[in-house]
């Protein structure tokens, strides 16, 4: 290799080293040939100094859409918006499980009365059928939830009787006016009259039989029974409507008073002009005047006055006043 060639090769290598320091690459240098015909061939040189930026090329075709990136962190909450309109009612949800049994409530007096009204007995016969076998005072509900307290005889002749008159010891005055007999009076413990309005109401539903029980001062008992019994309202002066006499050892002393109006000392309505209520000191369905007077004066057995005691003519006549009398009825 000549001196000139060596110098040229050295220069090329130096240039390559300088360039390669910048690019951190080395050119591929190859010496071809030996002897006098050697050639220096540079197969690939180091990159040159970057040229000036060329003009912006045309916009290329739109590339394919890239894959969805991962969700970013939530941004800061913005200000609350205005309240929207009320939405439609949603579809009802499924029925929930049955809850536990609650604590029993307290029933009011009015609610209790309503229960009794709807389920209570209408008369003593119904009470007896429900197992109330003791004679005594009971509350019944004969009509429209109107409570009424009555004496029930659960012993006599099969029981179930409503007692509307009782004489027992003379402790109650029975020589009273119209309004007293209309409303009722007396004592639950001894003697009483249930009241014509009450008797009318109780005998207005269905057929009722009548029984009269009498006891004298020797404790002899007698009775009389009638097929049916009712009294009309005050506008018809509590008129007596009586059925046939069915029998009894006291005899019949009431049939003669059938269809008669009720009379008191201040409202005498018997057919004649005898003023029976005043004359015989009672209140009854007088027919100028009477065969019986169970609301008369309470004499102690035999009496000298005529027909003004607790009399039952077919039994002991007009001059004997019974110790005890009870008038009672029950549904047939």
Automatic annotation (TrEMBL):
<dbReference type="InterPro" id="IPR020837">
    <property type="entry name" value="Fibrinogen_CS"/>
</dbReference>
<dbReference type="InterPro" id="IPR036056">
    <property type="entry name" value="Fibrinogen-like_C"/>
</dbReference>
<keyword id="KW-0430">Lectin</keyword>
<dbReference type="GO" id="GO:0001867">
    <property type="term" value="P:complement activation, lectin pathway"/>
</dbReference>
<keyword id="KW-0732">Signal</keyword>
<keyword id="KW-1015">Disulfide bond</keyword>
<feature type="region of interest" description="Disordered">
    <location>
        <begin position="53"/>
        <end position="95"/>
    </location>
</feature>
<dbReference type="InterPro" id="IPR008160">
    <property type="entry name" value="Collagen"/>
</dbReference>
<dbReference type="InterPro" id="IPR050373">
    <property type="entry name" value="Fibrinogen_C-term_domain"/>
</dbReference>
<keyword id="KW-0677">Repeat</keyword>
<keyword id="KW-0399">Innate immunity</keyword>
<keyword id="KW-0964">Secreted</keyword>
<dbReference type="GO" id="GO:0030246">
    <property type="term" value="F:carbohydrate binding"/>
</dbReference>
<keyword id="KW-0391">Immunity</keyword>
<keyword id="KW-0106">Calcium</keyword>
<dbReference type="GO" id="GO:0046872">
    <property type="term" value="F:metal ion binding"/>
</dbReference>
<feature type="signal peptide">
    <location>
        <begin position="1"/>
        <end position="20"/>
    </location>
</feature>
<dbReference type="InterPro" id="IPR014716">
    <property type="entry name" value="Fibrinogen_a/b/g_C_1"/>
</dbReference>
<dbReference type="GO" id="GO:0003823">
    <property type="term" value="F:antigen binding"/>
</dbReference>
<dbReference type="GO" id="GO:0005581">
    <property type="term" value="C:collagen trimer"/>
</dbReference>
<keyword id="KW-0176">Collagen</keyword>
<dbReference type="Pfam" id="PF00147">
    <property type="entry name" value="Fibrinogen_C"/>
</dbReference>
<dbReference type="GO" id="GO:0005615">
    <property type="term" value="C:extracellular space"/>
</dbReference>
<protein>
    <submittedName>
        <fullName>Ficolin B</fullName>
    </submittedName>
</protein>
<feature type="domain" description="Fibrinogen C-terminal">
    <location>
        <begin position="115"/>
        <end position="332"/>
    </location>
</feature>
<keyword id="KW-0479">Metal-binding</keyword>
<dbReference type="GO" id="GO:0005102">
    <property type="term" value="F:signaling receptor binding"/>
</dbReference>
<keyword id="KW-0325">Glycoprotein</keyword>
<dbReference type="InterPro" id="IPR002181">
    <property type="entry name" value="Fibrinogen_a/b/g_C_dom"/>
</dbReference>
<dbReference type="Pfam" id="PF01391">
    <property type="entry name" value="Collagen"/>
</dbReference>
<dbReference type="GO" id="GO:0097367">
    <property type="term" value="F:carbohydrate derivative binding"/>
</dbReference>
